[in-house]
Amino acid sequence: MLTHLDSQGRAMMVDVTDKQVTFREAVAEARVRMQPETLHLIQSGGHPKGDVFAVARIAGIQAAKKTHELIPLCHPLMLTGVKVELVTCEPDSVYITATCKLSGQTGVEMEALTAASVAALTIYDMCKAVDRGMSIEAVRLLEKKGGKSGHFKVEHDA
Q1: CB atoms < 10 A from the CB of 130, how many?
Q2: Can you give the CATH number for the domain in which 36 is found?
Q3: Which residues are annotated as a binding site for substrate?
Q4: Which one of 18, 125, 131, 157 is the catalytic residue?
């Protein structure tokens, strides 16, 4: 059994030394809800701070690569792929999907969740001057492949 506690109950990083190297992939999502006018400003390219989606995408990728520096007890991983996609949904939302991949001894769920979260926070940061009422919602793991625990996939809402 894997745990983040040692025999004395102290926090520790899980030892993955004896785990096999396998392909692993995780997909996470986040949603940013905003005023329709804010979404239109982003879509039109007229935002005074520039291309909001380009900056959010880069921020998400960078965050995935540095997850071990942000989340205590996460392993530093050599990611082989990180993809951050942003899709608008009229009238008031941006959906972010982050996918992380590697061949390694531990999963990439935290990296995908971190990428989606930081991309959402970046959108908030860039747009807060015009819309302080934005909300970040539905940060969750959608799918995980590989490793000892096998495949996990969320059944999407109808």
Answers
A1: 16
A2: 3.30.70.640
A3: 73-75, 110-111
A4: 125
Q: Return the residue matching tokens 């785990």.
A: 19
pLDDT tens column, 106-151 = 889 999 999 999 999 999 999 999 999 999 999 999 999 998 888 9
Among 102, 99, 111, 106, smallest CA distance to 69 is for 111
Residue 17 lies in a domain: no
For residue 68, give its domain range.
22-145
Binding residues: 73-75, 110-111
Q: Is residue 7 part of a domain?
A: no
- 92 has catalytic annotation: no
The string of DSSP codes covering 6-23 is -TTS-B-----TTSPPEE
Cβ neighbours of residue 96 under 8 Å, at least 6 residues apart? 29, 30, 31, 32, 56, 60, 84, 85, 86, 116, 119, 120, 123
What is the distance between the alpha carbons of residues 25 and 116, in angstroms, rounded to a whole number?
14
119 phi/psi in degrees, rounded to 5: -60, -45
Nearest alpha-carbon partner for 52 in 131, 139, 110, 137: 131
Report which of residues 70 and 150 the model is more confident about: 70
